[in-house]
């Protein structure tokens, strides 16, 4: 168990909680290092079929990169911090398991960048989103300029990044940052229910689908289609496929092994 990140696995779902509540779960070097290590481990963990990321407490998911730590940094140290942040966000995005963000409060700066590195976001009706970096004299540096533009289009991303404005949960839903809202007290039930649905499907197929979506989304349509076609036969190398097809034909529920 790390100093800043708690991970509990039950019924094939890993719950990853950023636990630095006194600083609203802000991302310092230690949190980023643990995030990277935890996600590299979960990616290879056969007991895990889906991952949920949330923040400790009822106020914040993550209120950004650690402002106090940044205040001490030289340009060289800032470069190393950015590199570590990118590695942590990539470990989340490239995790072989679907990663669901449960945004339970403020998701600001590096916090929104973390949520955007997940496969999709559910949020509390009280959540708030923003990239306030320019108000501090910097710009989003853990992938926000790129991931937000790709998620909601460059025009809306520019508005949020240039103004640093915070938006509420309903606006985030309307803009397509968030897939679904829930009352704060039932957010975790909603995310767990979706994770359970995913866990019952063929893990190899889900993981390959994630890979194809991620590798194709920034390519031309034709290149994405080529990727889909080329990777598709991998499903047919899995025991999961044999089980899924046999279960259908035998009119029973499949029992997937994830191999
Ligand atoms: N970092 C450090 N501490 C933070 C923090 C943060 N981002 N956000 C909150 N805290 C701390 C507060 O300092 C306070 O600590 P104490 O004073 O109690 O010791 C405690 O958490 C509770 O916060 P507040 O007292 O401020 O709580 P309020 O309810 O009044 O306000 C708030 C909540 C979320 C509106 C407010 O805390 C706030 O505005 N926080 C800062 C939000 C923010 O600007 N976030 C963006 C950070 S910039 C880089 C790449 C990427 C980045 C940076 C560098 N490289 C390329 C080098 C990314 C940058 C960011 O994310």
Features:
259 residues, alpha/beta, 6-stranded mixed sheet, 4-stranded mixed sheet, 10 strands, 16% strand, binds 4-(N,N-dimethylamino)cinnamoyl-COA
**Biggest sheet, spatial arrangement of strands:** 1-2-3-5-7-10
Shape: globular
Hetero groups in this structure are: 4-(N,N-dimethylamino)cinnamoyl-COA
Please trace the helix and strand order, writing H or E for each element. EEHEEHHEEHEEHHEHEHHHH
The share of residues in helices is 40-55%
Number of strands: 10
Contiguous helical run count: 11
Strand content: 15-25%
Distance between the termini: 28 Å
Structural class: alpha/beta
Mean pLDDT: 97
Rg over CA atoms, rounded to whole Å, is: 19 Å
The major β-sheet equals: 6 strands, mixed
The poorly predicted ranges are: none
Short description:
This protein is α/β, with parallel strands linked by helices.
Protein described:
It is a single chain. The chain is α/β, with parallel strands linked by helices and 259 residues long. 47% of the residues lie in helices and 16% in strands. It contains 11 helices and 10 strands. The strands form 2 sheets. The chain has a 6-stranded mixed beta sheet, with helices on both faces. A hairpin with a 2-residue loop joins strand 1 (5-10) and strand 2 (13-18). Helix 1 packs parallel to helix 3 (75-93), helix 3 (75-93) runs parallel beside helix 4 (110-117) and helix 4 (110-117) packs across helix 5 (144-152). The longest helix is centred in the N-terminal third of the chain and has 19 residues, at 75-93. It is globular. The two termini are 28 Å apart. The mean pLDDT is 97. The protein binds 4-(N,N-dimethylamino)cinnamoyl-COA.
């Amino acid at each position: 168990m790390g100093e800043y990140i708690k991970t509990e696995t039950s019924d094939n779902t890993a719950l990853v909680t950023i636990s630095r509540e006194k600083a609203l779960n802000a991302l310092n070097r230690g949190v980023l290092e643990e995030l990277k290590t935890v996600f590299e481990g979960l990616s290879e963990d056969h007991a895990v079929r889906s991952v949920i990321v949330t923040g400790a407490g009822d106020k914040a998911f993550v209120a950004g990169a650690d402002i106090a730590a940044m205040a001490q940094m030289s340009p060289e140290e800032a470069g190393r911090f950015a590199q570590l942040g990118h590695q942590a966000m990539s470990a989340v995005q490239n995790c072989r398991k679907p990663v669901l963000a449960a945004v339970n409060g403020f998701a600001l700066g590096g916090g929104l960048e973390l949520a955007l590195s997940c496969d999709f976001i559910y949020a509390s009706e009280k959540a708030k989103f923003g990239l306030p970096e320019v108000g501090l004299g910097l710009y989003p540096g853990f992938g926000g300029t790129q991931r937000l533009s790709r998620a909601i289009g460059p025009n809306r991303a520019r508005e949020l990044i240039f103004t640093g404005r915070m938006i509420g949960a309903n606006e985030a839903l309307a803009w397509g940052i968030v897939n679904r809202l829930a009352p704060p007290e039932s957010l975790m039930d909603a995310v767990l229910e979706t994770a359970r649905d995913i866990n019952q499907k063929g893990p190899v197929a889900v993981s390959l689908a994630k890979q194809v979506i991620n590798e194709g989304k920034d390519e031309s349509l034709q290149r994405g289609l080529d990727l889909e076609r080329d990777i598709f036969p991998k499903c047919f190398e899995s025991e999961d496929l044999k089980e899924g097809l046999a279960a259908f034909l035998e009119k029973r529920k499949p029992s997937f092994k994830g191999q």
